[in-house]
Amino acid sequence: MVIAKIKFKRAVTGLHLYSSKITGYLQGSFLVALFAFGLIPIFFYIMIVFGILAELEVIMINLISSKPILNAKGLYWVVKEGRLKTNRMD
Fold it and tell me: How many Cβ atoms from other residues are within 10 Å of residue 57's Cβ?
């Protein structure tokens, strides 16, 4: 959000990436497992790694895009659709 705020003058870009959705499901599953079975360290580390990777994807998309992007599926689709500042003729 900090990068989007600095670059686009607004904090919310609304990317809705698949990686963010998967991370949300992993975090929810971790909380259920935590309260049902106790701490499972490997599940915790998997959840943290996926969360970091999802946020890195958001940061990369915000850095390479020229305008705020809404409802992107992921970095692959952003590059494939040509929503980059290097592909724009503005």
Answer: 21
**Rounded to two decimals, what is the model's pTM?**
0.77
Residues paired with 84 in a beta bridge: 65
Instruction: State the distance between the two ends of the chain, measured CA to CA, in whole angstroms.
Output: 25
Which residue, among 27, 32, 28, 73, has the nearest Cα to 50 in the 3D structure? 27
Question: What gap in Å lies between CA 70 and CA 73, rounded to an integer?
Answer: 9
The domain limits of the chain are: 2-6+15-71
Sign of CA dihedral 62, 84, 49, 24: positive
Backbone angles phi, psi at 13, to 5 degrees: -105, -25
- pLDDT digits (tens), the chain, 90 positions: 666 666 666 666 678 899 999 999 999 999 999 999 999 999 999 999 999 999 999 888 888 887 777 888 888 888 888 766 554 444
